[in-house]
Give the backbone structure.
Amino acid sequence: MNKFSIPTYRSIQDYKDQQWPILIWIFEYLVTTSEAKLMIETFSEEGLYDQLAYHQKLLLSACDFNSSPLLNDYMSWRYRLAISRGIDPKYFIFENHLWIKAIQAYLFEGYSSEFNALYYEFIDSHQEFSTSTSLPPSALSENTLLKEELVQALIHTDENSAAHIFADHFYHFGAPTDFFDTVIKPTMIEIGRLWENNTISVATEHVATAMIERLWNRFSNHDTEDTFLNHRVAFVITPDAQLHKLGSKMVSSLLTQRGWKVANMGLHESFKELFEAIGEFRPDLIILSATMAIYIPLIQKFVLALRFDEPVYEGKIVVGGQAFYRTFPPILMENVDFQGESLKELDEYLSHF
């Protein structure tokens, strides 16, 4: 895939200062054009705005971490999403030219040229993204039949069949973490693929996630240790705006089973309430989880605040979630004590805590 040119630090900072005027200008212009008509009919005006806002946040995440793979992954995803819904990919050439125009209007000339060099690279890559629209390899590579059965139960909202699959197989994997990593995680990735390919609706995806949460709670919560381990306290923190919080709920369940006291918290731009809670309860462990890459800069900002603002947090910090592992190489965080991709890796870390 392409190696995109990432703007320099000063250009990124100038863009961040002007990101809202740029976003609003593009949105208000787009809704008046015939080129965006099908996008609006398909996703609604609100949905189009959400896509533009996501585009901006993802772009800044990739810039903050100097990650061309993240940009490639995002561009491929957006083209697949549009093409699977019958939208002409030439729309993105039009939209990218609007980003160029807005950036020229709002950024200083030297900074705008750096960002617009990136957008011209997007345009040059249009043909590649238009023709490389196949979905990534399926996550159902092992235990295929079992996971396909669970996928079918979920997309048909057949909770009884899904419960039977849990009952027949949950305890055969040695530990709940193995069942999650081997069965649930790839199943939910497949559910996401089906939505991306316009095979199922977003409502079906949400119902499937809720079913998995209920079944996990039903089958995993009976093994909680009788006593707390020295009354250790953990905060599991997820970005407030993140819709899917299945991963963080699994983490909370694992900690509870290991005898921890667990509090689930939300992360937003103001850290005041979180710092007040940390000061009051003094957690031994803080776990930050994200499924979408647009939240990585917020997590990074929070970690830096924990480590270097006053008072300095002296406990352990762990990060994880699909957001960090969508690309190769993955996005690795600094100033943390552990970063892991799977629930089993976290379980092993906790065993030595």
About this structure: The mean pLDDT is 90. The longest strand covers residues 233-239.
